[in-house]
Design goal:
The chain has 429 residues and is of the alpha/beta class. Helix content is 45%, strand content 10%. A four-stranded parallel beta sheet has the order 6-5-7-8. The protein has a two-stranded antiparallel ribbon with strand order 1-4. A two-stranded antiparallel sheet has the order 2-3.
Length: 429
């Protein structure tokens, strides 16, 4: 049902119309203006930095042969379109041929490659800001935007390659936003030298859509791009502008908080939620293994766990595998625990193997390095991904108890009032 047009909407229309009169050429003027900032694809690209300590192939090299260490993980080498990644023993090097596409950052399960612009936390904030403030949000690449010949709009998230967005991030975004699209005109991907990018984003998006039961839109026509802000965002921004113009302050209790402030607050709340979730997880399973190795939550896994807390039913749709141990073969050598990049695998004092599914990145490296082939990957129980918030559950129980007490008091009061009325009626008769 359409929302009723009121005075605030009239003011927004007046402001928009005035803006149109003031800038009659719109985006065409941006192209014609010689002083207008031009789009530079290189400003969106950066050669990745590498932390070899977390590389699965590097750590496996000290446990198994060179051939088997390659089996531990070689995703970055497979996805690199120019074979720029060289792994020798305990060192990962990115060569000068690197195209700065960022695909290695996306595919690395241990987040050994670092490019600030395409790290999961940064990408989540950028996409959520765009999706929360505009009717449509577009994830696109530098080649697609370069064809338009302009700087990106506020609802356009520009990446070296659309394949830089991992499935975990698509899943986290799609669960709450139904207005996220990919903008890729025809002739972009099939002529791109990042030859592995198209397969990467189709695979990642397809998996995220299966998990979330939502879909990512696709736009190929530049003329169909929608850059309209949402009604709620425009109304909030207008009220904030009026408040500033009148030299008044907008109180925290006022509904006239700006749209930008509201979205920023939402992102802060999300970050706080992830922090609390991590603390609860550490309290539940311990923040260290038996050998005092600190457990690590990757940004991608943190995004997944955070979304599952808000939508527990979605956990059942995820298809993740974790290692299971055949105790008859295990010699308790501990290679699995030493290889695990997030220290999700553990051996207790009695040599019993265990794995914390919430921390496991499902890389399978522990299976590769096990000398007795005692480990194998098995489907994960989705319920293990839901981190219990003891404080929230306690508050819910207390609120339920208070509601029950109030309802009981109300029923008791009604019975007493009825008895009083009956008594009065009896006396009157």
């Amino acid at each position: 049902m359409a929302e009723r047009h009121d005075m605030i909407d009239d003011l927004i229309d007046i402001r928009d119309n005035w803006s149109s009169v003031s800038h009659p050429l719109g985006s065409i003027g941006d192209v014609l203006d010689p002083n207008q900032e031009r789009f530079d694809p290189s400003s969106y690209k950066e050669r990745p930095r590498v932390n070899s300590i977390f590389c699965l192939q590097c750590t496996a090299h000290s446990l198994v042969s060179e051939e088997r260490s390659y089996d531990a993980c070689h995703r970055c080498q497979d996805i690199c379109p120019v074979d720029a990644i060289d792994i020798q023993k305990a060192t990962v090097r990115v060569g000068d041929t690197c195209r700065k596409c960022g695909l290695c950052v996306m595919t690395c399960p241990t987040e050994s490659f670092i490019v600030q612009r395409v790290m999961a936390n940064q990408l989540f904030e950028r996409i959520v800001r765009a999706a929360g403030s505009h009717e449509q949000c577009y994830v696109t690449c530098t080649r697609a935007l370069g064809r338009l010949g302009r700087m990106p709009r506020d609802n356009e998230v520009v990446l070296p390659c659309v394949g830089d967005v991992p499935r975990e991030l698509w899943f986290s975004v799609l669960a709450d936003h139904d207005n996220v699209n990919v903008y890729l005109p025809l002739g972009i991907c099939d002529r791109c030298r990042n030859t592995t990018g198209e397969e990467a984003y189709t695979t990642e998006i397809a998996t995220a859509e299966e998990w979330s039961q939502a879909s990512v839109g696709l736009e190929v026509d530049a003329s169909a791009l929608n850059h309209e802000q949402t009604r709620a965002y425009k109304r909030a921004q207008l009220m904030a502008d009026i408040a500033r113009a009148g030299r008044t302050t907008v109180s925290a209790a006022s509904p006239a908080l700006s749209g930008a402030q509201a979205i920023a607050k939402r992102i802060r709340n999300h970050a706080d939620q992830l922090y609390r979730m991590q603390r609860h997880l550490e309290q539940a399973v311990g923040d260290k293994t038996f050998a005092s190795r600190r457990r690590i939550l990757t940004q991608k896994r943190k995004a997944v766990l955070g979304m599952v807390q808000n939508h527990p039913t979605l956990a059942g749709r995820m298809r993740l595998e974790v290692p299971a141990c055949d105790a008859t073969r295990c010699t308790m050598c501990g290679d699995c625990a030493r290889e695990c990049p997030t220290n999700a695998c553990d051996l207790d004092a009695h040599g019993h193997f265990s794995v914390q599914a919430a921390y496991c990145v499902n890389c399978g490296a522990c299976v590769v390095v096990c000398p007795e082939d005692a480990l194998a990957l098995h489907p994960c129980d989705p319920s293990e991904l839901v981190v219990r918030d003891e404080d929230a559950e306690r508050r819910r129980r207390e609120a339920k108890r208070r509601r029950a007490a109030l309802q009981k008091a109300a029923r008791t009061g009604k019975r007493q009032a009825r008895r009083v009325l009956d008594s009065l009626e009896g006396r009157a008769s």
